[in-house]
What does this fold into?
Amino acid sequence: MNNIYDVLKDRGYVDQSSNEEEVRELLGSGPVTFYIGFDPTADSLHVGHFIQIMVMANMQKAGHRPIALVGGGTGMIGDPSGRTDMRKFLTPEDIRYNCDQFKKQLSRFLRFEGENGAIMVDNAEWLLPLNYVEFIRDYGRYFSVNRMLTAECYKSRLEKGLTFLEFNYMLMQSYDFLELYRRYGCLVQMGGSDQWSNILSGADLIRRVEAAPAHALTFKLLTTSAGKKMGKTESGAVWLDAEKTTPYDFYQYWRNVDDSDVANCLALLTFLPMDEIRALTDMQKGADINHAKEVLAYETTRLVHGEAEAQKAQDAARALFGGGGDMENIPSTTLDATAFEQGMDILSLLSACSLIASKSEGRRLIQDGGIYLNAERVNDIDAMVTKKDFADGSLLLRKGKKIYHRVIIN
It folds into this structure.
């Protein structure tokens, strides 16, 4: 299986393509320049971007050249796709900072030097200097309003109201593809399935303006077998930034996915050969699905945070859940011992460890029996934690069934 299109399809990435036979032939005929865009709406990429990043990495391994486009220009408008309300406006300073963070994270997956080295560009470079009247005159005539209103990215907004500002987004993204075609010979735009209308519009613009072939290829969103989007926890999104989601929490997210989702996640989010994945997850042959989950958690954490952090996370998980390992690698908070001389109330301690977003959440968890201190359930919302609760300078908190946190005193 040498054609990367076949590889992507076999692993379950491919959702739609503008012309499957033409796209497959193009990707099998030699190096192709392609791009995927990332709107800088936060200062980190998250699990929802993971599939796109893995596609870029697989494509580069096959000899193709990736362009990672950060939307410094389109980010000032906001993509209406998948939204029922307007996105928050970002300042130019916010956008620049977020784009810089994206570059650091993408560098873990893509090679930016040498033959077929990845390119990173910001569409603010060409979008911000545009003369609006000239742009609409030169390119607006290629877009049918009737056709645009049938696009999924706009249909979901019509009931609550679609602003003309957002209506421009498709034009901006289409122009990105045209600009990248002109500058770098980019022939394919890729993205999530929710971007299909925008991507197809860009390929169509190139054909109309340049009379040249261009293609659209979208990938399935990361969802559970029940169709629910993955990458969300009680505390929010699962980020690729270790400061926002710790390597341990990242590891635990994948370690705890549903049994029915393990094979799909291994195929989409690791580089393990498909034969190995099928052997790991073939329940008819008595495969240990918990071992497969551990492999998934380790491999995804290794890719995002490095081998050392993945090993620490695995050791911590094994220490907590009975497989042996190092308790030192469990997520922890260090506090001054003097804070416990008179005692610290349990709600303040949970807040100090970022285990609760508010004291009202903490009260609810305790009342529901969801907080444990050194394996003992906490039943009193006014419970005080003192030095006698520490053994060898630490104690262990548990939230729910699987969230553990060490408190260390110095």
User: Anything to note?
Assistant: The chain has three domains: 4-219, 232-326, 332-409.
